[in-house]
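S1.2 Input.
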Amino acid sequence: MKKLAKKIKLLGIDYDARIFNALRLLFALILLLYFVFSFEMGYIIGPIVASLFFVLCEYIVIDLPLRKKNVEIEKEGISFVSALLLNLKGGKSIKVSIKNSSRVIHGDVSNKFNKVLNDIKLGFTMEESLKDLSERLPSVYLQNIVLILIENAKYGTKILDSIEWQLEAMEEHYDNIVIGHKKILPIKLCLNTLLFLGFMIGILLYYTK
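S1.3 Output.
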């Protein structure tokens, strides 16, 4: 349940994980009863369909959108962290670096980092604000960067090399995702074409009976 609640929070949905779990369990139970009472082999098919629905529901509704959001976050995060790193190398504080970076880079990542500044104005410490930020970022690389900033805020540790390494790793990860999407694009086009042809053939066969 905690894992599901964390994924929902990362997705940015204001929704209770317990309600989501209860609803998918209810619909899975309805599917189970429907197959059991509607088909001769329903007692075998029903549990399989209900189990598949229960598992795929989380995958389709939560995991896939979260994966897509993670790619978008990392794309913007590369630009934001580059600007942030430039400010830090110039001797600016974390607070000033976030503020300056948010002025030139706009989007979801910028808004999330801006919330850190707003939280500080409300009386939260830098460490508390950054910790909350790390829990709202789906990218492990951005999470690591925020944790590095927290260590600096606490102990004054050197962070430039660590952030630069995480930035390079995030760039490589994003590039691999883009390359992977390009590689499977012809396969997707081929499958879509086959599905379309199958659909058209089915229509022709139906009307030529």
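S1.4 Remarks. Residues 136 and 192 are 36 Å apart (CA to CA).
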